[in-house]
Amino acid sequence: MGAVEDRLAELGLAVPDVAAPVASYVPAVRSGSYVYTSGQLPMRSGELMTTGKVGGGVSPEDAAACAEQCALNAIAAVKAEIGDLDAVRRVVKVVCFVASEVDFTGQPKVANGASDLLGRAFGDAGVHARSAVGVPVLPLDAPVELEIVVEVSSPPDQQS
After folding, report:
1. What structural domains does the chain harbor?
2. What digits encode the pLDDT tens for the residues 87-122?
């Protein structure tokens, strides 16, 4: 294990297996020095942690925990693409979609569940740009979906 996985272990977390896609896509794609993940749902052990809309049947706190799980799943997708998480130079961008009731405006606090985990896992390299967007519905009635973009230390043609 490297430093990133050691920091996750200190938090009582481990990089999970990559969640199986629920449609026609791959979990992550590398282009040059960047890895782009597909939208990650709050899957844990092959099942959604919860379903529903935030501000309705899902509390903001539960949604933040879902966002953290989404981030962990995104980390898994990155690891599957590059092998060593210590090769991540920077988490560049995070986009967090929150299935929200129309009067719920706390999407940024929900997204903090993901942002805080990325900061703890990657340290200064985990500080990122972010969008937190309220949407009416997400796949499988998930309350949160997350995608990330990371910069890695070398393009694939320069790796040994």
Report:
1. 3-17+28-153 (3.30.1330.40)
2. 999 999 999 999 999 999 999 999 999 999 999 999
